[in-house]
Each structure stands twice: as C-alpha cells, then as structure tokens.
Design brief:
Layout lengths: L1 H20 L3 E5 L3 H9 L6 E6 L3 E3 L4 H5 L9 E3 H4 L6 E5 L2 E5 L4 E4 L4 E3 L2 E4 L3 E3 L17 H19 L4 H7 L1 E5 L3 H17 L13 E5 L11 H13 L2 E4 L6 E3 L2 E4 L2 E4 L2 E4 L3 E3 L18 E2 L5 E2 L2 E6 L4 E2 L12 H19 L14 E6 L2 E6 L2 E4 L1 H14 L3 H17 L13 H6 L1
Parallel strand pairs: 1-2, 1-9, 2-5, 9-21, 11-12, 11-17, 12-13, 19-22
Antiparallel strand pairs: 3-4, 6-7, 7-8, 10-18, 14-15, 15-16, 20-21, 23-24, 24-25
Helix pairs in contact: 2-9, 5-6
Length: 444
C-alpha cells in the first residue's frame, strides 16, 4: 500500500501540468528491444510518445554476429525506427544524443540543445563493451554491439586470410591465421563457431598459398565452463560441437594483456593478429545522470522497483540492459532480448494504468529459455527445464530468431540468405569495406 499511496501523491502533483499541455508526454530514450516495445505498447494510449535514439535504426542484436561473420548484410537485421512506428499516430521519432536529464524539472536535453518536457520517462539505453578497466584493449580487440562493430570485425576476419595469402614467413602467417575470441557466453560461442565454418568450409579451395583449414581458433573463457547461464550438460555439448568446427575451447583462462600482435594469459603468450572481445558489457554512460536517484551497480545498471520505476520516482521507468530488476523470488532478470521486450511492454502497460487512474502492477518475468547456435546443424537450447542440442536445437534457434525479426522484408531476406548458405556452404556478405591497411596494398 505504501507504494500505491506514494504513486497517487506524486501523480496528483503532476496532473495540472499534464492538463495544461494536453495529453501526457512519454519520452522514451532508446530504440532497442525495450524502448521499441514500450513505444508500441502505448500505441492505443491517450498519450504523446517521443522516441529518441542516436541511431536511426532498430538493430536485431542476436543476429549481429552473422553480419560480423559475413552470413548476413547489415540491412538484413536492421530497420529504420521511423519505418517501424510510421503507422503509430501518437509516436514521434527524434535522431539525437541525450546530453542530460533534469529529474526535478522533468526535462530531457539533447546534444543539439533542444529540451523536451516529459510526464513519464522510459530510459531504455543499451549496453556497450566492458574491458574490466582495460579500455586500452578496445582498438586491438573490438566488441560486438553495433553494425559498425560487426563490419569492422568482418573486415578483420576476411583480411586475415588475405594477409596470410601474401605472407611468405610461416611464423607470421600462423599468427595471421590465429583467431582469438575472448568470452564464452552465447556471443563468443556463436562467433567462434562461425569463424570455424568460414575457415573449414566457406573459404576452402579459394586460396593458392594457404589452406584456411589450417587456421587456429581459440575461445577463451575465464570461468570453469562456457555458456555458464546454460545447464552444465549443454556447456559440455557446446564444447564438443565447437571442436567439430576446429575451435579450441580453453576455460579458466583469464586474459591479462592484449596488444596488436596477440594476447597474454598470465605468462603464456598467444600470437594472434585477430582478437575479438565478447567477455563483458556495461550500460551506456547516460545512466550516470540518474546516480543521484539510485545507487548504480558495477555495470552501471539502475536498480528499480518491481514495477520497473525508480524508487521515489514513479514517473521514471528504467528497462532493458539499463535496469537491475529482480524476479519475485529475488533472482536478477537476465540481460537478454526477451527480458528487455517484456520489460518495455510492462512499463508501457503501467503508464497506461497510471493515465487511467490505476496503480502500477509488479513486473512478472517469463523465462522463454536460452538458445545458442554453434554452426551448421549444431546448437544448444534450454527451454522450460528441458535441454536440446544438435539439429533440433538448431531449428528451434532459427525459428525463434526469424519470428522476432522486425518486418516481413527482413524475415524474407534472412530466410533466403540462410537457405543459400545451407545449400552452398557460402556466405554472400563477404565484403571488405573501409580503408585497407597499406601493408596489404603494397603486397597485392
């Protein structure tokens, strides 16, 4: 009852402001899974919605690794936010960076200087890479969070083979054909498996001086097993499946240094020209402006009440990667796409309830299960206490990802690309874009 009473009191104080401006204004920061679902959840509500994002597109992040490994093109997994919300009459989209939030005045300031007043604020900013205090590693070991990241990784993977083709020194060539993926979560597993497919199938017979199958692919994980969020049996299955694609899994392996020529694990040196980071994430720095309202956790997440709002501020919701949410039994809600979608919808539903004079309801997370693909015919899945691996899990993974893609066009393109790859073992998006290193230009 205390939370309900508090909400009614706060709501009473803002009603004159809302009445003066007409419909309540809901500002949503972020057009990812959480923000987009919050916006859609308000489509029929008597409110005005403004979605702010620094990029003009919504990205289907679970398939980003397929752009990085030349399976899909960026346009296959991204869609303009304006296009997605074009039929929602109460929604407006702004391209811009949020410079600050004044929680007292209830305003959001953009980097352009524009100031937007809000009645309800939904903070749905995503996450970026965390190098655990070693940000200097970022240029040598790019992470995978944006399309720019994906195309950069794709370029590095493909150039590794091109460089090796032109390198007469066997030792240097070996380093060029060594790929290190740091982090044994789903992203790391999927990246490593895809690189294994490229080396073991896609590029075979395409080079004169090298055999791509000689590539060395290492997946490093600091914990005792990969996929720690999955049941242990599936971690074992995943490691066996990765071995089929030529991936060497090394657990209990903490990276202590990274430079342009490789990585260190304690005193051990691994020479590798291509290193990819998939080990840690941290929330966008924007959440720092809310630190006076709540104590952020180490990753920058904002702790919220069960109703998904900040304690003492029922007008400010935090959802998705930016939120630290607990289930009814006190367990943290995982930072995965299905959870973000559910939180966005729930925040929207609570705003609708508030506008209609009702109290908020606590968020109830529904665990949809966990899926990770390893390669052709190989995946692992844990759904409602049941474990699946191999071909069945692979099909489950494909069906789920196509289902959640935005737009018929994207679904059609992805299915057609997957069909081509399945039949030909090829990858249609093998484009090396951006400026190439001068060393390669001289040798070409």
């Amino acid at each position: 009852m205390a939370q309900v009473d508090q909400f009614v009191t706060v709501a009473d104080t803002v009603r004159p402001t809302i009445a003066a401006r007409g419909k309540p204004h809901v500002v949503i920061i972020g057009g990812g899974f959480a923000g987009l679902n919050a916006a859609k959840g308000l489509a029929e509500a008597p409110v005005k919605v403004t979605v702010i994002d620094r990029r003009n597109h919504h990205l289907f992040a679970p398939l980003l690794y397929q752009v990085a490994t030349a399976q899909l093109s960026p346009a296959n997994i991204a869609q303009p936010i304006r296009s997605i919300l074009r039929k929602q009459e109460n929604a407006n989209v702004l391209l811009g960076e949020v410079a600050g939030i004044d929680t007292q005045a209830r305003t959001v300031e953009l980097d352009s200087g524009r100031i937007l007043a809000y009645d309800y604020l939904v903070v749905a900013v995503g996450a970026t890479h965390s190098y655990f205090g070693h940000d200097e590693w970022a240029p040598m070991a790019p992470g995978l969070k944006t399309i720019d990241d994906a195309t950069e990784i794709r370029k590095r993977i493909l150039l590794a083979f091109e460089h090796a083709e032109n390198e007469p020194d066997p030792r240097k060539r070996e380093a060029m054909l060594t790929f290190v993926v740091i982090g044994g979560g789903p992203t790391g597993v999927e990246l490593a498996g895809a690189i294994g497919e490229i080396a073991g199938h896609t590029l075979v017979k395409e080079f004169e001086n090298i055999d791509p199958r000689d590539s060395r692919i290492l997946l490093l994980e600091g914990l005792p097993r990969i996929l720690p969020m999955f049941p242990e049996a599936l971690s074992v299955d995943a490691e066996k499946d990765l071995a089929k694609f030529g991936v060497q899994v090394r657990t209990n392996s903490l990276v202590t240094d990274i430079d342009e020529h490789g990585v260190n694990i304690g005193d051990e040196r691994i020479d590798a020209n291509t290193v990819i980071w998939a080990a840690g994430v941290q929330v966008s720095r924007l959440t720092q402006v809310l630190r006076n309202l709540a104590e952020l956790d180490r990753a920058g997440r904002v702790p919220v009440e069960r109703e998904l709002h900040i304690a003492g501020h029922p007008e400010i919701f935090v959802v998705g990667d930016a939120a630290s949410v607990k289930t009814r039994d006190g367990k943290p809600v995982p930072g995965v796409a299905p959870a973000a979608m559910q939180e966005g919808k729930w925040a929207a539903a609570n705003i609708v309830r508030a506008v209609n004079g009702h109290s908020y309801t606590p968020f109830r997370y529904q665990d949809k299960g966990s899926l990770a693909t390893i390669g052709r015919h190989q995946a692992v899945a844990s759904v409602k206490g049941r474990n699946f691996n191999g071909f069945l899990a692979w099909w489950m993974w494909m069906v789920v990802h196509v289902f959640y893609l935005n737009g018929l066009r994207n679904r059609t393109l992805v299915i057609s690309q997957w069909a081509f790859s399945y039949l030909s073992f090829g990858r249609n998006a093998r484009l090396i874009t951006g400026e190439q290193p001068k060393t390669l230009e001289k040798k070409s």
